[in-house]
Structures are given as structure tokens and as C-alpha cells.
């Protein structure tokens, strides 16, 4: 796929990862379709940068679990700025939830935001990309698609589902020249509260469980998203790339690089 | 290895793997609640097979997409047998719709039965297992929980979810003496296809091509045959036994080595 202009659809543009991705793709002269819960209010700085780059950003605020709405939005964007070339699914919600006591509402909300929206967006964007026989889909997932949290099982199972969505879609859509990959992100600042657990001590001293004791940044993530959407990665399809500095491989606490 | 006297709930026990599991458990002296949903014909046949072996079973009906029906079912089993020691989560749907044809409603249905149903059956049996500080939970997943197979994207998603449900449940429920393990069967010969709603996962044209390209069985299954429900049932019996007490959060691929080819 040789792209003259990226048209990047980001499912949660207001998030830190969404903003970093916008900034990274501005440098590539991209147009944007930005789903923003704040309706763009949280993105004023990024939108200004897009404008200064001479490109366009369409800002929407829609329910990504409604196929018809997602399709309408993508078709509208197609007329305005071109067919989406890059789908970045970075929507997530982490709800503290235990197997024993969680309620159905927590389950449904987590599946919807973390997994169903990924499926619906893949279906809709995939249909348009199929027409062009080109496109890339990137799921910003989590190491918790593999590693249990002991604190938010509804998140783990949803990201486990996305992990298989990526692999199946890599086959189905791969036959139309579309690549589908997953980034399994590791800890960033604040995750010890997010995954606070009475069962798993994974996040105790988490910053030192990264062997080099340096946490990754949203810019690291944005760089990988860009790489996976670019022609530099044309043979990468259906891969899960762990972006955690080696955190998940940590084993011996006494060996941590801790002052 | 004795599991006699234990009390089991096997969901989806009117057909295929679930039937094989229920019958083998009963043959070994387990008291088995045979679950079905829409039609009791298959479950009655399971019961007949168990009766002929001189085993004990109880037919129970519930839609596993509905929490209240699950709770009603589990409390009936507990009243009848005095608890639940073993849960075999097996009832699942595989629609085989192509990616672009999946409706939102079918997506929800798949998740509600295959994933939410597994979790809520766990939730419903935990109080009884906690009371005894003993429990065995087995999740019937599939090789599709790790490897894509081009059949049904949403089915694979639900199995990917089960992979994590098994791991999360194992670490959370260990404190109550409950173990949770997952079985990942490959192709299993279940006779006449039991899942009545499943479409063929190949188009007529693909099926025709597939038949013309048919390969010797050992090219697909190193042991020279596909799986049988009894293969799965025997592993269930081990996982249900005291011999497996240190095993939890594991997922065992049971496919005759086929995924390695």
C-alpha cells in the first residue's frame, strides 16, 4: 500500500494516547477523523496544529457500537477527506470488577467499550478499505489481554477477545490488502491505581519491574502506531506487539534496578 | 483416581462434547446435572444413556444468557444433590457468519451465551463451592482461543475472552479451594451436527474445492483421527479429580497435535 495521504480514524481522540497519535500523524500530513467524547473541546491544541498543517480534521462524537452510525460517519468522511487508511482503536475502560461480585452492567459496559466497538469499527472501516484493497487497523490493547489483573476481569476478557479479533481479521481482511495488528501496552504512570488488586502484586514497584526502570510514554506508543500504519511494516499482519519495556518478563524482585 | 460421589453441572449436555462429558462422569459415579436449553430431546437421550449405565442424573433447563435462569437452575441442583462441586461450562453458540454479515444483535447473542454465560454460571456455583472450600471449574474453550481459523470472527473473540476468564477466575477463586482450568479441543466428531443454528463455515464453492483437495488424515491429525467426545470427557475427569489439585489457570490444547501441523 503506497499512501499519498493518511486518513486516520482515532476512536478515542481525547485520551492521552489519542492526542499523541494525532500529533505523530500531523508530521505525516494526515487528515483526521476524530471521535471525541468532548466534541473536540479537549482537543483544541491538537486541532489547531492540524489546521496549521493545512489538513482537515472531522470531529464527531458517536456511539461506536452502532454499525449504521459508524458507517455513515466513515462515508461522510470519505467524501470530505478520502477513504480511511488507518483505523486506530484505542478506546478503553477499566472497571474494578471481580468474578465473584461484578454485576452484569459492568460486564456489558466493558465488552462494549473495549471489544464490541473494535469489532463494529473493524467491520465498517474494513468494508471501505476493502474497496480500496488497502488499509491498516491497529488495536491499542494491553498486556492484560494475556496477564490477569486480579482487579478488573471484565477488562482482561474484553482485551482477550480483541486479541482474537485481530488475528481473525488479519486473515479475512488480509485477503483484501488490509493489515491488522495489536499493540499490547504495558504500564504507564498511574496504572498502579488503575489495577489496584488484593490478589496480584504485579503493580507493586511497577516502574522498577521494567528492567531499565524507565516507563514508556504516549509518544513511544504513537511511534509504534505510526510504524504499523506505514509502508515500513507491510509484512507485519496479525501480530501482537508487546510495548512494555520488558515489564511482563520481570521475575526476581531482588534484581530490580531500584535505587 | 476417584471422582465418585461428586456433584457436577455440565452445561450443553444434550449434544456433542457436553453429552460425552456428562455420560462419562456419570459412569464414574458422579451425580450429574444435565443442562439443556431449547429442546430436551438431546438431554433425554443423555439421561437414557446414564440410566442404562446405572448412573444418577438430573435434567435442568436454563437459558445461560439469563442470570436469573442460571441461578434458578443452580439452586435446584443444590437442593436436589446438596451442592455443586464441579462445573463444566460447555454450552456455546457458533453461528459461522462472515465478518461483514454479523449483526449487532448476533454479536450480543454470541457474547451473552459464550462469555457472559460462562462467567455467570461461575458466579452462581461459587457460593456452594465456597461453603465446602472445594470446587472444580472447567471451561470448554477451543483451539480458536489462540489460533484463528477463518470460521467465525465473533466465536473466536468469545473464546479469546474465555482464555482470560480462566486465568482471572483461577487467581481470584484459589482462596476458596476452587481451581479453574480450560480445555481447548480441536476438531471433535460429534456425529450429526448438533448446533442447529450453525451455518457451514465454508461456502458451497469453498466446500467443493475443499473436497477436491482432500488430504490424507495424518496430514491434518498426526494421530490419524479426529477427536471424540470421550477424549474430552477423560480429561474432564482428571481435572475434576483430587489428583489435579495443584493445577489451576491452565489451558490444555486437546487436538491430537493438529494445530502443530
- The CATH topology assignment of chain A is Rossmann fold
Indicate the multimeric state. Answer: heterodimer
Largest interface (CB within 8 Å) is between: A-B, 46 and 43 residues
Q: How many β-strands of chain A, per DSSP? A: 7
Q: How do the strands line up in the largest sheet of chain A? A: 3-2-1-4-5-6-7
CATH-defined fold name of chain B? Rossmann fold
What is the CATH level 1 assignment of chain A?
Alpha Beta
Indicate the percent of residues in helices of chain B: 40-55%
Helices of chain B, by number, come to 7
Indicate the proportion of strand residues of chain A: 5-15%
| Spatial strand arrangement across the major sheet of chain B | 3-2-1-4-5-6-7
Rounded Rg of chain A: 18 Å
Overall form of chain B: globular
**How far is it from the N-terminal to the C-terminal residue of chain A, by CA?**
47 Å
Superfamily at the CATH H level of chain A?
NAD(P)-binding Rossmann-like Domain
- First-to-last CA distance of chain B: 33 Å
Shape-level CATH architecture of chain B: 3-Layer(aba) Sandwich
Unreliable spans of chain B: none
The CATH class assignment of chain B is: Alpha Beta
Enzyme class (chain B): oxidoreductase
GO molecular function, one term (chain B): glucose 1-dehydrogenase [NAD(P)+] activity
Family (chain B): Belongs to the short-chain dehydrogenases/reductases (SDR) family.
Pfam families (chain B): adh_short_C2
General description of the model:
Chain A is an alpha/beta fold. Chain A has one domain: Rossmann fold. Helix content of chain A is 40%, strand content 14%. Chain A contains 8 helices and 7 strands; from the N terminus they run E-H-E-H-E-H-E-H-E-H-E-H-H-H-E. In chain A, strands 3-2-1-4-5-6-7 form a 7-stranded parallel sheet, with helices on both faces. Chain A starts with 6 loop residues before the first strand and ends in a 16-residue tail after the last strand. The model of chain A has no long low-confidence stretch (mean pLDDT 96). Chain B has 261 residues and is an alpha/beta fold. Chain B has a single domain (7-260), classed as NAD(P)-binding Rossmann-like Domain (Rossmann fold, 3-Layer(aba) Sandwich). In chain B, 42% of the residues lie in helices and 15% in strands. Chain B is built from 7 helices and 7 strands. In chain B, helix 1 runs parallel beside helix 2 and helix 3 (67-81) runs parallel beside helix 4. The longest helix of chain B has 29 residues, at 104-132. Chain B is globular. Chains A and B meet through helix 4 and helix 5 of A and helix 4 and helix 5 of B.
